[in-house]
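Hi team,

Filling in the usual template for the complex we talked about on Friday. All components are listed, including any nucleic acid strands or ligand strings, so the model treats them as one assembly.

SUBMITTER: L.P.
PURPOSE: interface mapping
COMPONENTS: ten
RESIDUES: 1160
SEQUENCES:
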Amino acid sequence: MPDPALLETFESPSQQSFYIEHVHEEFTSVCPITGHPDFGRVILRYEPAELCIELKSLKLYYQSFRNEGAFYEAVTNRIRDDLRDCMKPSWMEVTTEWKGRGGIRSTITATAGEEM
Amino acid sequence: MPDPALLETFESPSQQSFYIEHVHEEFTSVCPITGHPDFGRVILRYEPAELCIELKSLKLYYQSFRNEGAFYEAVTNRIRDDLRDCMKPSWMEVTTEWKGRGGIRSTITATAGEEM
Amino acid sequence: MPDPALLETFESPSQQSFYIEHVHEEFTSVCPITGHPDFGRVILRYEPAELCIELKSLKLYYQSFRNEGAFYEAVTNRIRDDLRDCMKPSWMEVTTEWKGRGGIRSTITATAGEEM
Amino acid sequence: MPDPALLETFESPSQQSFYIEHVHEEFTSVCPITGHPDFGRVILRYEPAELCIELKSLKLYYQSFRNEGAFYEAVTNRIRDDLRDCMKPSWMEVTTEWKGRGGIRSTITATAGEEM
Amino acid sequence: MPDPALLETFESPSQQSFYIEHVHEEFTSVCPITGHPDFGRVILRYEPAELCIELKSLKLYYQSFRNEGAFYEAVTNRIRDDLRDCMKPSWMEVTTEWKGRGGIRSTITATAGEEM
Amino acid sequence: MPDPALLETFESPSQQSFYIEHVHEEFTSVCPITGHPDFGRVILRYEPAELCIELKSLKLYYQSFRNEGAFYEAVTNRIRDDLRDCMKPSWMEVTTEWKGRGGIRSTITATAGEEM
Amino acid sequence: MPDPALLETFESPSQQSFYIEHVHEEFTSVCPITGHPDFGRVILRYEPAELCIELKSLKLYYQSFRNEGAFYEAVTNRIRDDLRDCMKPSWMEVTTEWKGRGGIRSTITATAGEEM
Amino acid sequence: MPDPALLETFESPSQQSFYIEHVHEEFTSVCPITGHPDFGRVILRYEPAELCIELKSLKLYYQSFRNEGAFYEAVTNRIRDDLRDCMKPSWMEVTTEWKGRGGIRSTITATAGEEM
Amino acid sequence: MPDPALLETFESPSQQSFYIEHVHEEFTSVCPITGHPDFGRVILRYEPAELCIELKSLKLYYQSFRNEGAFYEAVTNRIRDDLRDCMKPSWMEVTTEWKGRGGIRSTITATAGEEM
Amino acid sequence: MPDPALLETFESPSQQSFYIEHVHEEFTSVCPITGHPDFGRVILRYEPAELCIELKSLKLYYQSFRNEGAFYEAVTNRIRDDLRDCMKPSWMEVTTEWKGRGGIRSTITATAGEEM
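RESULT (copied from the run log):
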């Protein structure tokens, strides 16, 4: 099940504002209705305040959704909440892009903070 | 014929603002003048208020246009009206992209509410 | 020669604001200097007020330029003027994209009204 | 050597504002340090005031740089200055895109006037 | 190790504002944790004040990171600081795009000054 | 239901061997199990003997599958048989490419005669 | 674990030779060394003898590899063996394409029988 | 109407075998049934014997089809015959690719002689 | 320096013939004349006899060329020889694709054994 | 003018057969009729016998055509002859691809020796 305790951070290397984007192509969870696997990618964009997310821990956190049954909308909001609580960034945006289910492709976007 | 009663919703998983996009690649209706089939895709983008649209019901609603004779412009406004009445979203945009008829490709866009 | 009398309209299916785009890939006219044929595409975008343009009539209107000798810039302004006079849209944009003549590709854009 | 006297104009076909783009794919000049040829393309965008640039004269003007030794930055500013002096447009933008030299691709952009 | 003394400049050929972009496709440094090589590209965009960066010196400066062990975030801020100190541009943006490590692709962006 | 009587032919314009390909992007039939619509394209390649297929009649023949419930494999063999019986070509190949059902995209190919 | 008992077949609709291709984009198994998930796609091409594979059963069979730890080479040969034993086709080819592990993308191909 | 007298040739610069391809993107003729314009491109490939086709004359010959009403199949065979009679090449292939009419895209290929 | 002792193998999982392709996108060595880094990718295709190459060891072997000064042609033949001696495959092909040096992109291909 | 004395060679690093491809994107010569510049790329493929062509010398040789007036067909045969005389390869193929003149894109191919 999703485990935010897997997330680790390191101190930002600059006091000036800058932007970071991490694209994970191989996200998978399970449809809560049918039990079939869902596949997608997760795009994280953020402006760090004092902390940056460590890449390997981010990957392990994403893998912890592998057997989780949840709607697209709930997965996206869960990731936004967990990362926001962990990094407390100046601004953050989480986008999930899902391969089609029933001929429909879906994209969900949730943000935290204000982009400067 | 188009049947908005097919549409079902579920409660939004978050009180915070977020965005949803569903792309349906296989929309088909019928030209009201010639009776030939038209083919296109429908892109729905919205910011939920209290309700989200259920994916399978959305697909069945789109399929209910299969033998409907209607102009591109009327189809697009009809979908916008039906989805707005059903979900009452904070903001919504419906775009239909049509494969060419007579060497002309067409795209129609209708919105409801104000994007924040 | 270009014949705006070919253009036909129908009443807009909605009182609310929406946008329409028609892309015609196979426009041809003639260079007024050399007599060689020019080839391009015409992109019409508009927000209807009370009238929409009928697709087949638009195609026949575009075909009436086939043996017309005119500069790119004049063709574009002529289409803008004819369509504006016919539909009286809230906003309209005509873009012509021309395949290269002498190693130079050209794009001309003319508008009418203010996009909301 | 670059020869602005090659440039010719014709009167704009419309009093209303519109935009023109001419893309020339085959620009070549010479590196002033090494003497090796440089290759690129030149993108001219402008909003005419009273004059439009004639296409064939523009091509001959670009070809007059063929054996000119000049830095990317100087070529771009030279074209901007020559075209501005010739056409006196409401707004103008010159972009040069250069194929790589030493594994680095470069793009230079210079403008004149204010885009409305 | 990164050596800003390699950077050379030349005087800007114009007093008027213009923009320059240099894209380097072949940047490589080393992961400070695992010692494995990282690969990416560096996109530099700037508006010169009085100085432009000389291309060959920029390439040699980038190559001086070849055996440097540093996080993506630190590399990006280091390049931004070195180039800003050397050129003192009106505005500058450094973007690094990294090929995937552990199935995650990353992009980091740092700026200096205000774009006009 | 599929109606080969819709197919019409005309005499080949040449006694010498040549090849013809017609690509139809908008084929639709119905899944015989679930009743959901299937979408795909049909690629016909042939070397005429004495007869060529007339394009408009080919399109009407393809549209006659619209409400037919049949497996991909059966549709493809049916088209091959009908066209072979109608044109008696020297060689013929029918390929159907189907948009995904259940995350699997399918392509079926059936031939008649020997390619020279 | 991989379960060939999930595979179902139906009788081929034609006695004449034809070809079938099914592309599954969402295959996943597990690296037997590290335990990390692998992702790829499976391309099945075959010429049926008397039996065709049923699509939904093929999908369920592929999903049964989800928690299987196996090398790329072993997965590919396993699928080839299971499908050959089930369908006894005239000819069959199984190709697996894997997203990169450690910066290397891999493709494995195994066949059974002779292509005619 | 198509005029092979427009075609001009020059002597081949080499006694050794070599191949030539000329791609014309802007071919247009007229549908003999409906009178609507057809658009396509013509690809000529040949191995010269003693003569090569002159490029400007080839272009004028293609333009002479502009108001010709003819089926795709007849246009293709006509071009093959005219060019073969004019150049007497060792081998020649004419391919015409047509933009869609009624949702069907067509490609016709005719050859003369044997490719070595 | 290139170190074939890094290469490790494992026993092939099948006695039947099959094919393996590994694409490494991030190869780098050094130009023996100028000392500048070269960048490219290496495509290995082979049909195993009794041994398969282990992926992680292949990556480390490729990385051992990082500071090697050698011509494109020599690097390619070196990799072919080392892998052939290590795996003794039924057939093997090594292709190196190099990013441009001096405006010229190069591809080198060396094989061992006969493809069946 | 074209100067084959610029070409230099080095000894092939292997006695076994292998293949080399060099793609030069920035070839330019002059039309012998109009004096306008032509632009294209040159693709050289060869199997060395005892000698390989040195890359920098190949580039300088190509640049020596910069102000040469010659037909496409003559340029291609000239390069084939010069390189064959210099390297005496087992097999060689020279392809020139030319950007359009008068709406027609051309490709010329000349070979020497037999591909094994």
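MY TAKE: The radius of gyration of chain F is 14 Å. The first strand of chain F starts at residue 9 and ends at 11.

Thanks, L.
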